[in-house]
Write a sequence for this structure.
């Protein structure tokens, strides 16, 4: 008989939180900058995306997932690309 205990759980169990995201009905271009966008235009777009994230019931799950997979683009869990990069660049805390 085939051993199935090592197989991942149902996909729905892993991603169901996404159905509750405040961004589900938002324009996805708000969360991802167009090529060449810089300066104040980029900051305004990112802040508008973060405002949606701030109302989201699954912001924690989204943020954790984006850091776990090292999501390189867009606003995820209320964090911009640069903010995630800064968090990931921090040295891991040592347990004392």
């Amino acid at each position: 008989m085939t051993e199935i205990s090592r197989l991942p759980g149902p996909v729905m169990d892993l991603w169901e939180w996404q159905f509750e995201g405040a961004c589900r009905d938002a324009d996805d271009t708000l969360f991802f900058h167009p090529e060449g966008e810089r300066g104040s235009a980029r900051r305004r777009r990112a802040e508008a995306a973060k405002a949606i994230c701030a109302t989201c019931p699954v912001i924690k799950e989204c943020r954790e997932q984006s850091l776990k997979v090292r999501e390189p683009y867009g606003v995820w869990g209320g964090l911009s690309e640069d903010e995630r990069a800064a968090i990931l660049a921090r040295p891991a805390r040592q347990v004392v």
Remarks:
- The CA atoms of residues 29 and 93 lie 35 Å apart.
- The radius of gyration is 16 Å.
- Residues 11-89 form one domain.
